Amino acid sequence: MTDHYCVFGHPVNHSKSPMIHAAFAEQTGEDLEYSAIEAPLEDFAGAWKRFVAQGGKGANVTVPFKEDAFRLCDSLSDRARRAKAVNTLILETDGPTQNGRIRGDNTDGLGLTRDLAHHRVTVEGARILVLGAGGAVRGVLEPLLQARPKALFIANRTPEKAVQLAEDFRDLGEIAGGGYAEVEGRFDLVINGTSASLGGTLPPLAETVFAPGATAYDMLYGAEPTVFLRWAARQGARPLDGLGMLVEQAAVSFQLWRGKRPDTQVVRERLRQLLDEG
Ligand SMILES: NC(=O)c1ccc[n+]([C@@H]2O[C@H](COP(=O)([O-])OP(=O)(O)OC[C@H]3O[C@@H](n4cnc5c(N)ncnc54)[C@H](OP(=O)(O)O)[C@@H]3O)[C@@H](O)[C@H]2O)c1
């Protein structure tokens, strides 16, 4: 019998997740359908309930519902609990005690670290600057710190949020936070986790922020490099966008649902090709 999965978002018609999961299913021989559902802004829980009533087995969750999804869960992975955000819902149906319980996970961070590994970007021992202190950044801090960077600084437009985030993750490694004016020195890896690129805005950074051989990573992706990546390339940094992160986080979700790890390389290439074709 065909199992049903979906991505919930608002808006969601731009989502590449149905295409990614269809490719994973075909590749692994899993019998599943994956759709995109625009949930009403004020009733995410209702949308999930209706989906389950129609046979839904699990879902991805994107903007703006990751915190609603977090509140809906009966149990959480450690990384989702720390992130206070869930991007993967799993309906647990095995065993009499689990029937219908909702488990939440957050695969964004592993998606990022797998993508960095794919591009051979070394996190261990690196000086990392993370821009932004929203849901996406909260989701990636644990796996980044577990990869043991030398130091990690979070810079945010609203400095208090960065300070609080650093406080929340302090037990995992050398981490501090503040405003852009407090960014000091050069970094081996600068990750843009703000939504500034969406509006074509550049976070206020000094041109000297990149160490020699540094990588600039924008979680956003598109047919054209973002304004941040274009600027970073002009400063000599290696630009990488978030397309690989998207595919890798999807692969982790797929494995959580189906127990099979798909090959991401072919899907990355296909998606890039589709983006280039417009
Ligand atoms: N590739 C992937 O798989 C993936 C996964 C998740 C997210 N993302 C991307 O990551 C980005 C952030 O998502 P999110 O869910 O974390 O959003 P969010 O929770 O709304 O957080 C937005 C962050 O961006 C900052 N910001 C917004 N406009 C800014 C500007 N003009 N200048 C400087 N900072 C600005 C905000 O600062 P304040 O706190 O001061 O408001 C906040 O820190 C989005 O572009 C999203 O598409 C990609």
From TrEMBL:
<feature type="binding site">
    <location>
        <position position="62"/>
    </location>
    <ligand>
        <name>shikimate</name>
    </ligand>
</feature>
<dbReference type="Pfam" id="PF01488">
    <property type="entry name" value="Shikimate_DH"/>
</dbReference>
<feature type="binding site">
    <location>
        <begin position="15"/>
        <end position="17"/>
    </location>
    <ligand>
        <name>shikimate</name>
    </ligand>
</feature>
<dbReference type="GO" id="GO:0005829">
    <property type="term" value="C:cytosol"/>
</dbReference>
<dbReference type="GO" id="GO:0008652">
    <property type="term" value="P:amino acid biosynthetic process"/>
</dbReference>
<keyword id="KW-0560">Oxidoreductase</keyword>
<feature type="binding site">
    <location>
        <begin position="156"/>
        <end position="161"/>
    </location>
    <ligand>
        <name>NADP(+)</name>
    </ligand>
</feature>
<dbReference type="InterPro" id="IPR013708">
    <property type="entry name" value="Shikimate_DH-bd_N"/>
</dbReference>
<comment type="function">
    <text>Involved in the biosynthesis of the chorismate, which leads to the biosynthesis of aromatic amino acids. Catalyzes the reversible NADPH linked reduction of 3-dehydroshikimate (DHSA) to yield shikimate (SA).</text>
</comment>
<feature type="binding site">
    <location>
        <begin position="132"/>
        <end position="136"/>
    </location>
    <ligand>
        <name>NADP(+)</name>
    </ligand>
</feature>
<keyword id="KW-0028">Amino-acid biosynthesis</keyword>
<dbReference type="InterPro" id="IPR046346">
    <property type="entry name" value="Aminoacid_DH-like_N_sf"/>
</dbReference>
<dbReference type="InterPro" id="IPR011342">
    <property type="entry name" value="Shikimate_DH"/>
</dbReference>
<comment type="subunit">
    <text>Homodimer.</text>
</comment>
<feature type="binding site">
    <location>
        <position position="242"/>
    </location>
    <ligand>
        <name>NADP(+)</name>
    </ligand>
</feature>
<feature type="binding site">
    <location>
        <position position="78"/>
    </location>
    <ligand>
        <name>NADP(+)</name>
    </ligand>
</feature>
<dbReference type="GO" id="GO:0009423">
    <property type="term" value="P:chorismate biosynthetic process"/>
</dbReference>
<feature type="domain" description="Quinate/shikimate 5-dehydrogenase/glutamyl-tRNA reductase">
    <location>
        <begin position="116"/>
        <end position="196"/>
    </location>
</feature>
<keyword id="KW-0521">NADP</keyword>
<dbReference type="Pfam" id="PF08501">
    <property type="entry name" value="Shikimate_dh_N"/>
</dbReference>
<dbReference type="InterPro" id="IPR022893">
    <property type="entry name" value="Shikimate_DH_fam"/>
</dbReference>
<feature type="domain" description="Shikimate dehydrogenase substrate binding N-terminal">
    <location>
        <begin position="7"/>
        <end position="89"/>
    </location>
</feature>
<dbReference type="GO" id="GO:0009073">
    <property type="term" value="P:aromatic amino acid family biosynthetic process"/>
</dbReference>
<dbReference type="InterPro" id="IPR006151">
    <property type="entry name" value="Shikm_DH/Glu-tRNA_Rdtase"/>
</dbReference>
<dbReference type="GO" id="GO:0050661">
    <property type="term" value="F:NADP binding"/>
</dbReference>
<keyword id="KW-0057">Aromatic amino acid biosynthesis</keyword>
<dbReference type="GO" id="GO:0019632">
    <property type="term" value="P:shikimate metabolic process"/>
</dbReference>
<feature type="domain" description="SDH C-terminal">
    <location>
        <begin position="242"/>
        <end position="272"/>
    </location>
</feature>
<comment type="pathway">
    <text>Metabolic intermediate biosynthesis; chorismate biosynthesis; chorismate from D-erythrose 4-phosphate and phosphoenolpyruvate: step 4/7.</text>
</comment>
<comment type="similarity">
    <text>Belongs to the shikimate dehydrogenase family.</text>
</comment>
<feature type="binding site">
    <location>
        <position position="219"/>
    </location>
    <ligand>
        <name>NADP(+)</name>
    </ligand>
</feature>
<dbReference type="Pfam" id="PF18317">
    <property type="entry name" value="SDH_C"/>
</dbReference>
<feature type="binding site">
    <location>
        <position position="108"/>
    </location>
    <ligand>
        <name>shikimate</name>
    </ligand>
</feature>
<feature type="binding site">
    <location>
        <position position="87"/>
    </location>
    <ligand>
        <name>shikimate</name>
    </ligand>
</feature>
<dbReference type="GO" id="GO:0004764">
    <property type="term" value="F:shikimate 3-dehydrogenase (NADP+) activity"/>
</dbReference>
<dbReference type="InterPro" id="IPR041121">
    <property type="entry name" value="SDH_C"/>
</dbReference>
<protein>
    <recommendedName>
        <fullName>Shikimate dehydrogenase (NADP(+))</fullName>
        <ecNumber>1.1.1.25</ecNumber>
    </recommendedName>
</protein>
<dbReference type="InterPro" id="IPR036291">
    <property type="entry name" value="NAD(P)-bd_dom_sf"/>
</dbReference>
<feature type="binding site">
    <location>
        <position position="249"/>
    </location>
    <ligand>
        <name>shikimate</name>
    </ligand>
</feature>
<feature type="binding site">
    <location>
        <position position="221"/>
    </location>
    <ligand>
        <name>shikimate</name>
    </ligand>
</feature>
<feature type="active site" description="Proton acceptor">
    <location>
        <position position="66"/>
    </location>
</feature>
